[in-house]
Amino acid sequence: MASLIAENFKFISLFFKSKDVMIFNGLIALGTVASQEVYSVFAFSCPCSPERNYLYGLTAIGVPALAVFLIGVMLNRNTWKLVFECRTRGSRSLSSAAGFALLGSIVGRAMVAPFTWTVISLLRGEPYVCALSEFVDSTSLDSFPGGHGAGTLARFPCKDVPAEVESFKEEIVRRLKYESQLLGWLLVGLAAITIFLLMCLKRCCSPLGNHQEAYWSQYRSSENDLFQRTAEVHAKLLAATNVKQFFGFVALDKEEREQVKEFAVEDATPSLQWNKITGVYLYRENKGVPLYSRLHKWAKDMINVNLDNNGK
């Protein structure tokens, strides 16, 4: 029974690991929906005044979307890889293909939350109704009384509508919500088509077959996981070496003492080596041999250097 539970848990963990990007984007979208609902309930309040309605409605849709987009860009590690690449190696050494692929990854991830915010705002309809109520053509409404201009129309999203035109409120709001929801669903359809075409383009332009592409993805995930875990241990052991040098001893638990005995860490890794394994990378080959990352390329170069030295 215990082995069965362990196998099932392992299968579930592997499934979620293979779908981590999709799940991550889904969680971002759900968080954005929840935030939008909270904002609509507690914060959205149409001013119901000519000109102010338009600015307030567009701001309610656009500014939060822009804010979460910038946050998404800042939280993406690829953004800082691109900054590092331009700062350290110069933009000339960054190929257009690598730059385009990286920017596409950054923008694609960052667009999930603002796109969700915009679509939910349009499907709810309140910001759109607020923004465009004053621009409704009153002549398109049957028996709409004269003498009521933009000032009256701007008050339709609110409750204080003049009694003589109150009967038109439901029709105007319904018409504007129809337009808003139509735009929302069109955006959803356009996004679905765009994502499908981009996925097809990525598969068509990839130099790898389906199995090797899956292997490369698995390699990058494993390398990153092992690198992070090893870096954590290396940093702890280097710190322990320096603390011991200062105090004459270092307070370690049992597991850490075993690590100190097993792994000898006496000095920090040179910055030149860090620079060689850091930055933007696209798939490359050397004489038909795949190079899956900068770390992989650096390791192969070190092997070749050692072979040359031994040959001499």
Automatic annotation (TrEMBL):
Keywords attached to this entry: Ion channel, Ion transport, Membrane, Transmembrane, Transmembrane helix, Transport
Membrane-topology descriptor: Multi-pass membrane protein
Keyword Ion transport: yes
Localization per record: Membrane
Cellular component GO terms, alphabetical: plasma membrane
Coiled-coil positions: none
Example GO molecular function: monoatomic cation channel activity
One of the GO BP terms on file: ATP export
Pfam family, one: Ca_hom_mod
Residues annotated as transmembrane: 21-42, 54-75, 96-117, 182-201
Lineage top rank: taxon: Eukaryota
Family note: Belongs to the CALHM family.
PANTHER family found in the cross-reference section: CALCIUM HOMEOSTASIS MODULATOR PROTEIN, CALCIUM HOMEOSTASIS MODULATOR PROTEIN 2
Name this protein carries in UniProt: Calcium homeostasis modulator protein 2
Provenance organism: Acipenser oxyrinchus oxyrinchus
